[in-house]
Amino acid sequence: MADAKVIPFDDDRSRGGTGRAARGRPAGGGRRRTGAGDGGRGGQDAPGTGRGAERSPQDGTQSPLAAVPAGPGAVAEDVRGADGTGDAEDTGETGDAGKQAARDASGPAVDASRATGRDAEDWDRRIARGLAFLRRRITGDYEVDEFGYDAELTDQVLLSGLRPLYEKYFRVEVLGIENIPAEGGALVVSNHSGTLPLDALMLQIAVHDHHPARRALRLLAADLVFVLPVVSELARKAGHTLACAEDAERLLERGEIVGVMPEGFKGLGKPFSERYKLQRFGRGGFVSTALRAGVPIVPCSIVGAEEIYPMIGSSRTLARLLGFPYFPVTPTFPWLGPLGMVPLPTKWTIQFGEPVPTGDYPPEADEDPMLMFNLTDQVRETIQHTLYRLLVRRRSVFF
């Protein structure tokens, strides 16, 4: 123990020195603060001094205390490397990737909140439009034409109520809508079927919703429609008018799109065994009207309506008692009562054919019976052949 040699803990540069000065801190006044030479870390020991770089003055080897980092700054320096950069680039990329991952993780929540905000705004607009509509109805601030057509009521109430049936239930596909002119009058001639005249209503929505000009179809209806309570008033409001040549010609001369179904009750009430077989088109009255007005005739074929109420019979006794042209008997009606009146969800297709021009004929052309017959037959055959093509293309009644 007497020979034990004490090694000072402090920075002793010269073991052979004498006095306190040899064993004390360097004469420079202890730790020396540096500026840029230490990488800008204030208060860190200068190179060659303090614990950060302690070496034995005799053999030049590093002291065991040199293995101990000087502080957090030294750890950071080891991580960065000798050049002060180290893995900074990797750290930056990792940080960017983390931010991107955070954004991706929060994306669905942000999108959901935005969608909720848009839905709330849509509902606010709908409520505002509804209140404005009610105010106009109460105050009488709306227009009705000479035929009783209420365009606002039709667009916002009547067609809106039928649109789910059109879009979701029957899933109507519309072809050839470009054959209906964007302006001026035209006569749309279509087949008629389905036991109940739902095909006429679906045709009206098809023209309004799919035509670029959102044109209104003014349908010509049978006398029976205008003697039924409630139905007659709604038909007038929806723009329907009596199927007479005078009303049709007036509408065409005003530049309206007029719809007519020449088969009438013969096509609407035919048995299921005769589906998609056109009935007689009358005496060609629609051709005479188009010739006098000088407007084109647009053939229209509807597939899908024949199967909504498959009529397997008709009760003539009940038809006479009720004043109807027929009383349908289907596999579900009248056996299931009101449930039997729910139509089958068939897939519909409505195709508008190329217009048949009438403007080149002389004014007295409507008095030529042969011309009337030829044009009537041409329109009828066009509709019939189009029905056959659509039936061949159809994969299923319901799909």
Descriptive report:
This protein has 399 residues and is an alpha/beta fold. The termini are far apart. The N terminus is likely disordered. The radius of gyration is 45 Å and the shape is globular. The protein is built from 11 helices and 9 strands. The chain has a domain of 209 residues: Glycerol-3-phosphate (1)-acyltransferase (3-Layer(aba) Sandwich). The strands form 2 sheets. The protein has a 7-stranded mixed sheet with strand order 1-9-6-2-5-3-4, with helices on both faces. Strands 7-8 form a two-stranded antiparallel ribbon.
Characteristic terms for this protein:
single chain, 399 residues, alpha/beta, Glycerol-3-phosphate (1)-acyltransferase, seven-stranded mixed β-sheet, 11 helices, 9% strand, globular, disordered N terminus
Write the layout of secondary structure elements.
Layout: H1 19-23, H2 72-80, H3 88-139, H4 151-169, E1 173-175, E2 186-190, H5 198-210, E3 217-221, H6 231-237, E4 241-242, H7 245-253, E5 257-260, H8 264-268, H9 285-293, E6 297-303, E7 313-314, H10 316-322, E8 328-329, E9 349-352, H11 369-393
Helix pairs in contact: 7-9
Question: What is the tally of beta strands?
Answer: 9
- Contiguous uncertain segments of 5+ residues: 1-93
What does the largest sheet look like? 7 strands, mixed
Average pLDDT, all residues: 80
Q: Output the structural class.
A: alpha/beta
Ends: how far apart? Answer: 105 Å
CATH architectural label of the domain at 151-308 and 343-393: 3-Layer(aba) Sandwich
Could you name the CATH class of the domain at 151-308 and 343-393?
A: Alpha Beta
Which oligomeric state applies? single chain
The CATH superfamily of the domain at 151-308 and 343-393 is Glycerol-3-phosphate (1)-acyltransferase
